[in-house]
Design brief:
Layout: E1 5-11, H1 19-33, E2 40-42, H2 55-58, H3 65-77, E3 80-88, E4 94-101, E5 107-112, E6 135-137, E7 140-146, H4 153-161, E8 166-171, H5 178-192, E9 195-200, E10 202-204, E11 209-211, E12 215-217, E13 223-226, E14 232-238, H6 240-249, H7 252-255
């Protein structure tokens, strides 16, 4: 097991409803940093199409073009890749998902957003998920989450109770509420004694402007990587021992009943 995990946050300016162009752009951004084998590569929510509610464009079957793109990247760089995809239900509605793919092409996690963004009309077209989904990469237990989920801390408690040591939020979070994004990512890290990664898009679409601020936050709430506002990739090293040592030293999770506590 490696001592640290290399993470690459792909802060992309997604072109509206243009899947081939966004796949090409993401491919170029990732190639520029040339991730080493064993890395974790993370793309934002609905990065292939932008945050559109037009299911005729956004929805894909399982194994569709965006899933195939993620498999391509995972295999090429022998890394785990996480990215947003919209899949379609049998009744024609969509599911806003975070998909994690292994280098071998295995689906490690398919998490469905528990809290569709009602202000953006998402709950009219996307079915809400009902559970968390954890997977392990390089010995670290990871819980993927999506954008508006960040405002609901009880969801992260469920993930931590299940063993999560890192929370990853992929997002299309607009500039109007960007301070909420930064503050809540730090809060989730502090209260759960874990790493938190937020990967947001930048640029504009017909509805919103996005200023990125993709972040890596350590278990003390300290921002250790910040992508600022431009389209770019930021990199960081995650040390699993920092999570485990801090949780051992500071018993907040035990006192919350999320881990075994000898006082109870």
């Amino acid at each position: 097991m490696p001592d640290s995990l290399a993470v690459h946050l792909i802060q992309i300016n997604s072109l509206w409803e243009d899947r081939p162009a966004n796949h090409a752009k993401a491919r170029q951004l990732i190639a520029a940093v040339n991730p080493q084998p064993g890395s974790l590569i993370i793309l934002p929510e609905t990065f292939s199409t932008g945050f559109s509610m037009n299911l005729s464009v956004t929805a894909e079957p399982e194994g569709g073009p965006t899933e195939q793109f993620l498999r391509e990247i995972a295999a090429k760089y022998q890394s785990c890749v996480i990215g947003g995809v919209v899949t379609q239900t049998a009744d024609g509605r969509g599911m806003n998902q975070s998909l994690a793919i292994s280098p071998a092409g295995t689906v490690l996690s398919r998490y469905t957003k528990n809290h569709p963004f009602s202000m953006g009309g998402e709950c009219q077209v996307h079915v809400a998920g009902t559970s968390v989904s954890l997977f392990e990469w390089q010995g670290l237990r990871i819980a993927p989450l999506i954008c508006y989920d960040l405002r609901f801390p009880e969801l992260t408690r469920t993930a931590v109770r299940a063993g999560a040591e890192m929370l990853i939020y992929i997002a299309a979070w607009p500039v109007k509420r960007i301070q909420h994004w930064v503050t809540l990512l730090q809060a989730r890290a502090i209260e759960n004694l874990c790493y938190v990664i937020g990967v947001n898009r930048c640029g504009t679409d017909p509805q919103f402007t996005y200023t990125g601020r993709s972040l890596v936050v350590d278990p003390h709430g300290i921002i250790i990587a910040d992508a600022a506002e431009q389209e770019r990739v930021i990199n960081a090293q995650i040390d699993p021992a920092i999570v485990r040592d801090w949780r051992s030293q500071f018993p907040a999770l035990k006192d919350a009943g999320l881990m075994t506590n000898q006082c109870h």
